[in-house]
Amino acid sequence: RSHRVAVIPGDGIGLEVIEAGKKVLAALANKSGDFQFEFEDFDWSSQRYIEKGEYIPKGGLEKLSKFDAIYFGAVGSQDVPDHVSLWELRLAICQGFDQYANVRPARVLPGVNSRLKGADEIDWVIVRENSEGEYSGNGGRVHQGLPDEVGTEVSVFTRKGIERIHRFAFELAQSRPRKKLTLVTKSNAQRHGMVLWDEVFFEVAKDFPDVDIDRELVDAVTTRMVLKPETIDVIVATNLHADILSDLAAALSGSLGIAPTANLNPEGDFPSMFEPIHGSAFDIAGKGIANPVGSFWTAAMLLEHLGENVAAERLMAAIERLTASGLQTRDLGGTATTEDVTQAICSDIEAQ
Ligand code: NAI
Ligand code: MG
User: Where are the annotated coiled coils located (predicted)?
Assistant: First the structure.
């Protein structure tokens, strides 16, 4: 069988880690022998925007919709405002393809040194609502540039949008050994949309009596993540809250360079998109020292999504042997380059 994967490396270290990830995916397909990848590269990037005034060409999303999955690097450039790059590329795909479930696992890989006490207890999945809420793009500015200028950023929460993400999170929690789900909102200070989030959560909970639930305010959950990491299994939270919590989760598990993300359209009407959680990292771009492990773990999520579970497990095992071996990039305290790590993983896969 063959899987058609659209590859959008984007900007900065996105180019480096996705190139590395493609090599690893090809090595896995080679090893397995019963599937292969047809990669198609897309140059949708800030470079393209600067030259042509657009990230995505006309008809681009239509073309992308024919693929089995999307493998994405990062977008962001010092020459384009971040709200432009994010909205014109990444959010255009996530929202255009109704990838409403953003899934972010966090775990301390063997040999990785987290500075957090009790970090080996971290085994979390953060489920982020990825289609509405604080990132609806709803709002505006009046009296621009004047002293009494006003900007509004209005969150939009719909019952449908809330219900489907809760249902997704419950199903995910149900599939895990501990079957725990923590609802995170800020429904004391925000008394409309957040209260609706809470209400719908407890309605959906009735269909999942075997899932152990609790709730936490977003500020309080940050302290719980640091002080009692073992009490958390799956978290479900809004677009903004989960965005922040998942960066914290990544840092607590060792480095932003390790963490993966899946942007899922669970119904399968559109392709889902897989990306490392980190951005384009101006400070290290072009130096060949970016940690590619985040993009490898992302590749494992992509494989699982395509039904290639054996290859996904093989890749995760290779990643764990790699981190345990101490061959680590600078963000983890080592001296290895992107290339060193990529070669080590590919040889390990070949040797197994
Ligand atoms: P960032 O994630 O690019 O970098 C934050 C810090 O983590 C930097 O010190 C960087 O060197 C380090 N880091 C990140 N990934 C690493 C890796 N694989 N290996 C080693 N070190 C790594 O976030 P930052 O600096 O806030 O944003 C830079 C640009 O990326 C901005 O334009 C931002 O908008 C964009 N961005 C894009 C994202 C996406 O495409 N999904 C996500 C986050 C930021
Ligand atoms: Mg983020």
Answer: none
Asked whether the whole model's pTM tops 0.90, one would answer yes
- H or E element at residue 302: helix 293-305
Q: Which atom of ligand 1 is nearest to the CA of 90?
A: 40
Model pLDDT for residues 208-243, shown as the tens digit of each residue = 999 999 999 999 999 999 999 999 999 999 999 999
Residue nearest to atom 33 of ligand 1 (CA): 76
Judge residue 322's burial from the number of C-beta atoms within 10 Å of its C-beta, 0-12 exposed, 13-18 middle, 19 or more buried.
buried
In CATH terms, the fold of domain 114-253 is Isopropylmalate Dehydrogenase (3.40.718)
Q: 338-351 and 309-325 are packed helices; what angle lies between their axes, rounded to 10 degrees?
A: 120
Q: Which residue has the tokens 């093989």?
A: 314
Distance CA(65)–CA(232), nearest Å, equals: 36
243 CA from centroid of ligand 2 (Å): 5
| Residues near ligand 2 ion, CB 5 Å cutoff | 243
Question: Dihedrals φ, ψ of 131, to 5°?
Answer: -125, -15
- Delimit the domains of the chain by residue range: 1-99+262-352, 114-253
Radius of gyration of the chain (CA): 20
Per CATH, the number for 1-99+262-352 is 3.40.718.10
